[in-house]
Amino acid sequence: MYPYKTFTIVTDNGPYITKLILKAPKSVRAECIDKDTFSVYVERIDPKTGKGFLENHTWPGPKIFPSQGYRPVSAAYPCDENGGKVYQSGHIALEMPYQMGAPIGYSMAASLREGGYNALVECRYRVTQVKDIPGEVPINGWIFDESQGDICPQLRGWQNGCSHYEPLPLNYGYFTPDLDHARQSFTALDSNYGDEWEHTFPEKLPLVIWLHGHGEGGDDPALAYTGNKVVAISSDDIQRKLGGAAYVLVPQCPTFWMNSGAVNHQDPQELTSSKSMYTEAVKAAIDEFIELHPDIDRDRVYIGGCSNGGFMTMRMLLSYPGFFAAAYPVCEALRPSDFSEQDIENLKHLPMWFTQAENDPIVPPDGLVLPLVRRLKAAGAENVHVSLFERIVDKSGLYKDGQGRPLEYMGHFSWIHTFNDDCVYDLDGTRVMHEGRPVTLWRWMGRQCRK
């Protein structure tokens, strides 16, 4: 029995194990192995119970997904210890296809916890050699079933913490930029970025806050930044667009942000009012994080979130209207009637960029974000934008449906376009501009500063 490591990619739909890295007892050459050399079996285990499960996934439609079975291998080759292809090595990489709708490779389970919360799951693999590896003495009988951890390059710089607000401490995930790496990336600008907007590397760094949706509530903060592709904010591309480097803070709600704390939990109107029992706790977590990182620019604190977190984004803006430099709510769910005329007056000067899909069945834009934006514009708001997508369709070319067309997601998944920086057009179909230049959401964000 020999060890292996998993290799994870955080995709638009969350984390998938896309590769296994086997630590073989002998070195092998590239021509001696292929995709049929090994058989891969996996069991997805609920870490809280130690048992497998059948996953009822309701987003694309009611389906029961298996949590154990065989995964096909699309490629096999010698590799270095991190999975990079080489000609000969004592490590072997097995690549496996992955896609939404094929959850056997998914390391998250939808609605696994009571209350409809998602959960990260343990994936136990058993890799069996099923074809001889040629040589003077053919090799056979290798079995790899001892996990030695996971490799996920997108999680470099990410850690977990907890606030010390005594009434209601919150778990959170956070990203701390590697300043040496960020400076190197900043100075190696390509032609798309080498223009008059670029400046010297900042002494103070912005803070980007993300408030997750309903499914990512619970007690594992990693879920809050891997359940959606929040880690994209820490990518070189978005970090550069934010000015060179930025901190990221992702608080996790123990339940859901819309929870008002009402005593009568049988009354949904009380339970999900326009208030949240977590407002002060989120602000306390933000304040504490800023105190712990004195190089954060207090005039460049940005906040956003999706769905339930979009609601909470607006709730934070209403409660602390002068604190944030800009906001990027995604499919926000706070009702227009919950904004008073004074609220509109307080918010009209705040830069905001909303993202939404026309066919969102959970928070329809006609009843939520669009009436709000009309009120803000009527009050004189000039730096408020809406990217309204007809549908949420994969633009990367990586994910296809059964007919080979770009994969279409449920209309509620508009955060996909936020994290892929696909938001470029305003509600009237024109490009969003800043200082006479077209911008994407993240380039726009990096140039907003509290006045």
Automatic annotation (TrEMBL):
Q: Where is the Esterase Ig-like N-terminal domain?
A: 4-134
Q: What SUPFAM superfamilies does its record include?
A: alpha/beta-Hydrolases
Q: Which UniProt keywords apply?
A: Signal
**What InterPro entries does the entry give?**
AB_hydrolase_fold, EstA_Ig-like_N, Plant_Biomass_Hydrol_Est, PLipase/COase/thioEstase
Phospholipase/carboxylesterase/thioesterase domain: residues covered: 206-364
Recorded GO MF terms? hydrolase activity
Which superkingdom heads the taxonomic lineage of this protein's source?
Bacteria
Q: Do you know which Pfam families this protein is assigned to?
A: Abhydrolase_2 (PF02230), EstA_Ig_like (PF18435)
Q: Does the keyword Disulfide bond apply?
A: no
State the name under which the record lists this protein. Answer: Prolyl oligopeptidase family serine peptidase
Species of origin: Acutalibacter muris
